[in-house]
């Protein structure tokens, strides 16, 4: 399993490329912008993109999807149903733009080579936010950040819901690499110790 990260778009959203080296298969997670740069990495690595996976529907995580869909028509595009139709200007309504858009939810799994991608529904930043668990890695979108958590003041946001979602992540057994939607990566153990939001969530 190999994970590459590109900071894309005006606010430097983390776009992750998850690769199974043996199967030469890949998933693109949160292509927020700069489709050309993302496609260059795919081409350089010689991998077949099976999935485009969205942790939530905000435009800074989805802007490159239509272009990637044209370039990679074989890739299945997944988002949680609650974030598919957008909400005002804050969300990017993929449902009208991408024919055959697929929906995943809590407990769903996707196979990528020898890897299994597990879906955890972690609302709070948006109604349809998910965390993708692969091996010892958590792709958290804008739910859990290093030292912080996603904002809850946008349409569909809820502080109570993000607290429940953070508790769910904090209670996962063992340690994980935390790959958030913005800023630096971390580990779940470090966040359990020092992230004030996660600590608050774990106390309830």
Can you describe this structure?
The protein is α/β, with parallel strands linked by helices and 204 residues long. It has one domain: Metallo-beta-lactamase, Chain A. The protein contains 6 helices and 14 strands. The strands form 3 sheets. It has a 6-stranded mixed beta sheet, with helices on one face. A 6-stranded mixed beta sheet has the order 7-8-9-10-13-14. The protein has a two-stranded antiparallel sheet with strand order 11-12. Strand 11 and strand 12 form a beta hairpin. Helix 4 crosses helix 6 and helix 5 packs across helix 6. The longest helix has 12 residues. The chain starts with a strand and ends with a helix.
How many distinct folded domains?
Answer: 1
CATH H-level superfamily title: Ribonuclease Z/Hydroxyacylglutathione hydrolase-like
Beta percentage is 25-35%
Tell me roughly what share of residues is in helical segments.
10-25%
What gross morphology would you assign?
globular
What is the quaternary state of this protein?
single chain
Within the CATH hierarchy, at the fold level, what is the topology?
Metallo-beta-lactamase, Chain A
Order of helices and strands: EEEHEHHEEEEEEEEHEEHH
GO molecular function: hydrolase activity; metal ion binding
Protein name: MBL fold metallo-hydrolase
InterPro entries: MBL_Glyoxalase_II, Metallo-B-lactamas, RibonucZ/Hydroxyglut_hydro
Keywords: Hydrolase, Metal-binding, Zinc
């Amino acid at each position: 399993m190999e994970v590459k990260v590109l900071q894309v778009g005006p606010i430097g959203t983390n776009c992750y490329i998850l690769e199974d080296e043996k199967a030469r298969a890949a998933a693109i997670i949160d292509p927020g912008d700069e489709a050309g740069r993302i496609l260059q990495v795919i081409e350089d690595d010689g991998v077949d993109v099976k999935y485009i996976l969205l942790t939530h529907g905000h435009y800074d995580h989805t802007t490159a999807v239509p272009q990637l869909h044209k370039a990679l028509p074989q890739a299945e595009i997944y988002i949680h149903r609650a974030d598919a139709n957008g909400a005002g200007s804050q969300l990017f309504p993929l449902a009208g733009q991408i024919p055959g858009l697929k929906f995943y939810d809590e407990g769903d799994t996707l196979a990528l080579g020898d890897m299994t991608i597990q879906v955890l529904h972690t609302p709070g930043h948006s109604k349809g936010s998910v965390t993708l668990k692969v091996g010892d890695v958590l792709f958290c979108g804008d739910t859990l950040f290093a030292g912080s958590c996603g904002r809850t003041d946008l349409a569909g946001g809820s502080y109570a819901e993000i607290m429940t979602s953070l508790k769910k992540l904090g209670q996962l057994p063992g340690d994980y690499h935390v790959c958030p939607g913005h800023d630096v990566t971390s580990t779940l153990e470090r966040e359990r110790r020092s992230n004030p939001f996660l600590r608050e969530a774990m106390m309830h």
